[in-house]
Amino acid sequence: MTIRPQLVMWHVWSTKEKVNVGKLVNKCQCGRQRHASFDGFIESRSTDSHQNDDDFIERAIHLSSVLLEAAKRSARKRSSVHNASVWPLTPDLTIKVFSMLDTQSLFCAGATCSFFKMCTIDPLSYININLGTLIPKIKPKINNNKDAMVSTMIQRVGSALQSIKLGVEPPYIIDDDDDEWGIKRSQQLEESPFLTGSCLSSLSANGGVPGSRLRSLQLYKIKLKDKTTLSDALSACLSACHSLVELKFVGMMHVYISRILEAVSRYCRLLERFIFEFSGGRPDLVETSVCKEFVVNCPKITTLVLQACELFPSEAFELVKGFNELKYVDFSNCYSLTGAFLEDLATKGGGNSLEVMILRRVYNLDKVEVIKFLRALLAGKFRQLRHFDISASGGLVDTGDGSDLRYGVRYGGQFIYL
Question: Contact 271/247 with Cβ under 8 angstroms?
Fold first, then answer.
């Protein structure tokens, strides 16, 4: 009898009675339900004749073995297709390489493959997905292969997922020339390969189960065709990540920062560390209403980094004053930021828990306003502040008497860079 895997017909009692086993299997979603269904099916066919029952059971055993072998063959075919797409060597070269190994080495290679196969099917292996690297090492033949691999990992781990780190991290650049810094940064981000936002869709699949317990999400060089598409993709994935504590976006070139802040305010209210670095292109505006909503809905923020965004003094002051537990703030490369932000902190209060403030390459800082902030610092305000950096190759804007400004102030045992 020829058994076709596509449609298995089981002759259980007579030539007229047939059962579609494929349909029976598909109706049973979980293993326990499937076992109970098959048990009930076999018991329902029992008769008073022991001979007929024995024949029926023998046929069932034979069919189960045939189904098992068919399933194993199908699994081997799928594995072969997968290996052919990811294995870098051709079949003939692979055979030549392994034919040069001795029996013991082949045994060790086989044991290693079996071990890694068990690891790949264990959901606990993907609790912390770390695919961040300084140098791209994986170059799939098909562009979307890497996204598919990440999606498979996320789906496999399910609700046990705790952290994700994806993409090629841009190297940190220290350069005295601000223009040169921006050019180098953009070139490195353009040259490095990137994932797309499609790999994040799995976080919101199955009712958001994969993203429900995610604590940390770090993305480097994620890109789609336009701002709207990527912003929508990121907002959709954040809608399932209610337990996020850390959110880090670096190398973002096509995204609306206000859209991201809106999604964070709505869904990620346990967030403590938010890092966003815009790289290349025109900086995106941080809106006032969005800042207020962010402060109200995410009160646990301790680390806030908004680099290369269009951030005005009023919005910056709103953020620093609003977060009572804020310890680390970095508004570097925010060219619309002025010294009025520092003057407001000195005169209106706020930022009492700050330990680190970094305002590198902020061109519109006025010497007079910086002096007011430093005098407030030396007078006893901002007692927790240990690091203050406003370094820039062009220096500070001088619109008044800045004669008493020095290049540095030693405070609390550490140097404050000017």
Answer: yes
Closest-CA residue to 307 (of 338, 340, 327, 284): 284
Tokens 């961040």 belong to residue: 132
CA distance 231 to 223: 10
Alpha-carbon gap, residue 189 to 289, rounded angstroms = 31
| 200-259 pLDDT per residue, tens | 888 988 888 999 999 999 998 877 655 567 788 888 899 999 999 999 998 877 778 888
- pTM for the whole thing? 0.69
How far is 110 from 299, CA to CA, in rounded Å? 53
Count of Cβ atoms closer than 10 Å to residue 338 Cβ: 19
State both tokens at 8: 């298995």
- The tokens for 394 are 């062009």
- pLDDT per residue as tens digits for the range 284-327: 788 999 999 999 999 999 999 999 889 999 999 999 999 999 99
Burial bucket for residue 234 (CB in 10 Å: 0-12, 13-18, 19+)? buried
Q: What percentage of the chain carries pLDDT values higher than 70? A: 70
Q: pLDDT by residue (tens digit) across 352-374? A: 999 999 999 888 888 888 889 99
Q: Using CB atoms within 10 A of its CB, is residue 116 exposed (0-12), middle (13-18) or buried (19+)? A: exposed
**In the 3-class helix/strand/coil scheme, how is the chain assigned residue by residue?**
CCCCCCCCEEECCCCCCEEEHHHHHHHCCCHHHHHHHHHHHHHHCCCCCHHHHHHHHHHHHHHHHHHHHHHHHHHHHHHHHHHHHHCCCCHHHHHHHHHCCCHHHHHHHHHHHHHHHHHHCCHHHHCEEEEEECCCCCCCCCCCHHHHHHHHHHHHHHHHCCEEEEEECCCCCCCCCHHHHHHHHHHHHHHCCCECHHHHHHHHCHHHCCCCCCCEEEEECECCCCHHHHHHHHHHHHCCCCCCCEEEEEEECCCCHHHHHHHHHHHCCCCCEEEEEECCCCCCECCHHHHHHHHHHCCCCCEEEEECCECCHHHHHHHHHHCCCCCEEECCCCCCCECHHHHHHHHHCCCCCCCEEECCCCCECEHHHHHHHHHHHHCCCCCCCCEEECCCCCCCECCCCCCCCCCEEEECCEEEEC
Alpha carbon 134 to its chain's center? 16
